């Protein structure tokens, strides 16, 4: 299912509850992210970028989309590439930092709901499934708890390249 077709009702409901103060704080975080994203491209490209690809809104939607795919047993395709899954876990790690900096009960609650859904559709494996595919696990770096869980139903084939 293409990324844009999967609904994100939890994220949308949370956004509707955010106060003006919270929305302003999110805009500040997103402006910082926009500066980072612009710094990684040529000047002529940077001046055309008006919003960060990895905005707080997009990150929450991506994390929710992953949890909903897991709920649906990866339907309709029945698979999900491991590189995209790893990207989603990196997004989740970034959300931890964002939520910590914003002091928003609404966003903290949303992250908790999505994390509980993730936990319900994964099992602890000590990082064994992802270790061959993710250099930070191979190096023994200290990572967040999500990296030490794998989907109950593995949606990928083991032909992926390592990151």
Summary of the model, kept short:
By secondary structure, the chain is mainly alpha-helical.
List keywords for this structure.
163 residues, mainly alpha, two-stranded antiparallel sheet, 7 helices, 2 strands, 55% helix, globular
Count all strands and give the number: 2
Work out the helicity level. Answer: 55-70%
Query: How far from one another are the termini?
Result: 24 Å
Class based on secondary structure composition and strand pairing: mainly alpha
Query: What's the alpha carbon Rg, rounded to whole Å?
Result: 17 Å
Listing every helix as H and every strand as E from the N terminus to the C terminus, the arrangement reads: HHHHHHEHE
The total tally of domains equals 1
Uncertain residue segments? none
Strand percent estimate: under 5%
Written description of the protein model:
With 163 residues, this protein is mostly helical. It has one domain (8-123). It has helices at 9-17, 20-39, 43-46, 56-71, 82-102, 105-120, 135-138, and strands at 122-124, 149-151. Strands 1-2 form a two-stranded antiparallel sheet. Helix 1 packs antiparallel against helix 6, helix 4 crosses helix 5 and helix 4 (56-71) packs parallel to helix 6 (105-120).
Task: Map the helices and strands.
Layout: H1 9-17, H2 20-39, H3 43-46, H4 56-71, H5 82-102, H6 105-120, E1 122-124, H7 135-138, E2 149-151
Antiparallel strand pairs: 1-2
Helix pairs in contact: 1-4, 1-6, 4-5, 4-6
């Amino acid at each position: 299912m293409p990324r844009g077709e999967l609904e994100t009702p939890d994220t949308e409901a949370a956004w509707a509850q955010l106060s003006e103060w919270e929305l302003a704080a999110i805009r500040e975080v997103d402006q910082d992210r926009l500066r980072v994203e612009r710094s990684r491209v040529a000047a002529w490209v940077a001046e055309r970028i008006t919003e960060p690809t990895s905005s707080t809104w997009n990150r929450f939607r991506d994390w929710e989309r992953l949890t909903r795919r897991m709920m649906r047993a990866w339907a309709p395709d029945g698979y999900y590439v491991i590189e995209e899954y790893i990207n989603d876990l990196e997004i989740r790690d970034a959300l931890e930092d964002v939520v910590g900096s914003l002091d928003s009960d609404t966003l903290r609650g949303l992250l908790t709901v999505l994390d509980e859904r993730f936990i319900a559709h994964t099992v602890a494996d000590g990082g064994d499934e992802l270790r061959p595919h993710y250099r930070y696990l191979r190096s023994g770096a200290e990572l967040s708890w999500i990296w030490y869980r794998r989907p109950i139903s593995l949606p990928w084939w083991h032909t992926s390249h390592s990151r």
